[in-house]
Specification:
This protein is α/β, with parallel strands linked by helices. 37% of the residues lie in helices and 16% in strands.
Amino acid sequence: MSQKTFVLVHGAWHGGWGWVRLAELLRRQGHVVFTPTLTGLGERSHLIGANVNASLHIKDVVNLIHYERLSGIVLVGHSYGGCVVSGVAEVVPDKIASIVFLDAFIPDDGDATVDLVQPAVKDIILAAAARGETIVPVRNAAAFNVNENDRPWVDSLAGPQPIGTMTEKLKLTGAREKIARKTYIRASGYPNVSFEAAHARAKAEGWRTYEVPCGHDVMIDMPERLAEILNEV
């Protein structure tokens, strides 16, 4: 098995901590793995504020790629992370060998995350924005259908999401589409109209697609199967 470099980008309310099991598996197989935590979340939660938006999260990952001198990477975005990796592809497309959307949004130019989420979540975000709040309250692990044993762990580490990351409209020119290897992984144990639509789109556009029978946090529920898929793509 040839050595690969993985950059794993977490979703909303999460942090680099969510990848711990998957990262350990991939490193044991000889791969290089980076699990950046986006500004304002996880161990960087002290940096949360009104200035934190999707552009800043994109910059977090672009800077990691630049300063670690990475190339030929497998770039994985989970959930909201699909918006982040789409933005990263605009800046450093030449550094990405393969891009993977893990139960993630596939945004188009002018989309904000709030435009892509399911209606109930959209209402929560818009209500928070109308009140002038700078964060979106954390969603619990049960809402993502995380396996019951791991829910207390996830709930103890998940935190509020900077609202600017949900409301900023992305500027995309189609760089993502030029990446030859594109993959979509759908968590079939998590009913969600947004990700169903994204999965259907990926199929229609000829991406490699997979379905995994677990909750939304695939890297927590089924890390072994996810590692297998990532080695294939």
